[in-house]
Amino acid sequence: MSRKKKRNPQSILPEAAQNAALERFKPLLTPTDYQVMLEELAQPLPLAFRSNPLKAKPGAEQEWAQRYGWQLEPVSFCPTGWRVTEMQTSVSMTLEHRMGHYYIQDAASMLPVELFELDPLDRPLVLDMAASPGGKTTHLTARLLDHGLVIANDSSSDRITALRLVLQAWGAANVAVTRFPGDKFGRWYPETFDRILLDAPCSMQGLRSTDSHPMRPITSREQDTLARRQASLLVAAIAALKPGGQVVYSTCTLAPEEDEAVLDKILRRFSSSIVVEGLESRLPSPAPGLAGAYGRNFDPQVIHAARLWPHRFHTSGFFAALIRKVGPVDFPREEPPDRPLSLVGQKPLAGAAKRDLFDFYRNQFGHDLEPILETYGLEMWHSAAGIFAVPSTYLQHFGGLPCHLLGLKLAEETPDGLSPAHDWVARFGSSFTAGRVVIPHDLLAPWLRGEDLDFAPGGELHSGMVVLYDPDERCLGRGRLQAGKIKNLLPRRLV
After folding, report:
1. pLDDT at residue 462, as a whole number
2. Domain end call among 105, 131, 153
3. Do 321 and 276 touch, CB atoms closer than 8 A?
4. Which residue, 403, 430, 467, 463, is CA-closest to 54?
5. Alpha helices, DSSP H only, in 69-147?
6. Which residues of 394-406 are buried (b: 16+ CB within 10 A; e: fewer)?
7. End of a domain among 105, 121, 152?
8. Domain coverage including residue 93
9. Dihedral through CA 10, CA 217, CA 237, CA 323, nearest 10?
10. Would residue 460 count as lying in a domain?
11. How far is residue 248's CA from residue 50's CA, in Å, rounded to a whole number?
């Protein structure tokens, strides 16, 4: 007699969690909206991505669509966001994805950064308080076009590596990765930042279960703990914000306890110091927050937030609010850590070493470093790990704050001499006019597998460092040309 195969509890957990959340959220919607939402949830969620203006040329998305057999439609509230409704080649399996020309991200998660007013600012100080895995940090640097410092903080040591790797792939230079409890920034740097993003840790009850946001049952005790933590972080964000600055508070849950109720609590505490700004100009159609839930009425300003039920814009469930600070707040103060780069073996690159690096890039690659460093406000610093282009703004305002990544790696020192760093080449390689090698299409796959190539480019190039491109002018990183071969120098993380 055959036995029935037992179902893996993990395989039914997201569905059970979704059903429980649906039942709980049902009273918050009209019967018509609830039915429309059920119909939306029965459809698969299209994959989406954001292009990287620091690397991808304007209109590159249509080239990718043609090359990989994609059908694209724009994300209505994000100019650089695209949904992929059909694909022949997976969006995660392209050269452009590997080289950081776009970031795969749920369309709903593109909303928070789009809420900020950034255009009037000149080199702003921006804090991403709970940044890992880094998608919204990349969005911040993209909207700023890498002008203005973004501190990407996360309190978890387990998530710092993922955050650092995402930012390295993206190629922004005006970034710093730190690992501290987020609420410390309110104490250490009161009224310092122009913009702060708090994409808060939450219960992830967005009604769509994905690999990055799996739904699971949440107890009321867990929810209360999360809400207290969210409120604590939001208070600290407001304390760290300059008067006139903006905080975006967002979650990937639709639980009112973590959304409108947190906002209501903060409004009651800082009634004369903050306002919730309307989002009419930023959304294609209204998606108001709740005026009340489960017998509780919220501050009237709460409805100015955006509650993205899945059927509103064909996304996962999401919540976001734009808060402006209009007056000072009282918050305890502490001295921040003070461990400048000089105490950890780093020093400014100066004198002959600085001139040598300028000459190396100019003579071998036709690449002029000086105007780039000036344009983006960067200084060159030397450490055991190599030479980095470091944000001057960080040194000016946060020079003692320890970080896990600072700036963009510029060069490495090897027994054979200087080598351009992959991260710098991947960002600026399109401007190199010398030291270029174009490899044929049939060598692209082995190169991306990390293999050395039997290939002699001809011409005047016989040995030394080169930068590789394919026939479509896509930058493939660095290699070392020697004896008719090209040694593969792709970072292991990309192979």
Report:
1. 67
2. 105
3. yes
4. 430
5. 95-98, 111-115, 135-143
6. bbeebeebbbebb
7. 105
8. 46-105
9. 110
10. yes
11. 19
* Contact predicate 155/404, CB 8 Å: no
pLDDT given for residue 274 in this prediction: 98
- Among the residues of 26-59, which ranges form H helices? 31-41
Strand, coil or helix: what is 439? coil
Q: What is the pLDDT of residues 377-424, one digit of tens each?
A: 999 999 999 999 999 999 999 999 999 999 999 999 988 889 999 999
d(CA 331, CA 334): 10
473 pLDDT exceeds 50?
Answer: yes
β-strand partners of 51 = 102
Catalytic site includes residue 252: yes
The answer, yes or no, to whether residue 4 has pLDDT greater than 70, is no
Burial class (CB in 10 A: 0-12, 13-18, 19+), 371: exposed
Q: Alpha carbon of 472 to those of 67, 88, 264, 361: distances in Å?
A: 11, 20, 53, 23
Which two tokens mark 243?
């008067």
Q: What is the domain-level CATH number for residue 69?
A: 3.30.70.1170
Domain assignment present for residue 461? The answer is yes
Q: Tell me the backbone φ, ψ of residue 101, rounded to 5 degrees.
A: -85, -15
DSSP three-state, residue 302: helix
| pLDDT tens digits, 291-331 | 999 999 999 999 999 999 999 999 999 999 999 999 999 99
Residue listed under structure tokens 């995402």: 166
Predicted local distance difference test score (pLDDT) of residue 10:
38
pLDDT, tens digit, for every residue of 259-275?
A: 999 999 999 999 999 99
Average pLDDT, the chain: 93
From the list 202, 252, 403, 475, the catalytic residue is 252
Comparing 457 with 323, which gets the higher pLDDT?
Answer: 323
Distance of CA 130 to the CA centre of its chain: 11
Mean pLDDT value of segment 64-79: 97
Q: For residues 120 and 118, give the distance between their C-alpha atoms in angstroms, rounded to a whole number.
A: 6
Measured on CA atoms in the order 23, 27, 32, 34, is the torsion positive or negative?
negative
Q: Where are the beta strands (DSSP E) in 41-124?
A: 47-51, 71-74, 81-86, 102-104
7 in helix, strand or coil? coil
Q: Number of structural domains, the chain?
A: 2
In the chain, % helix, strand, coil (3-state, to 5) comes to 35, 25, 40
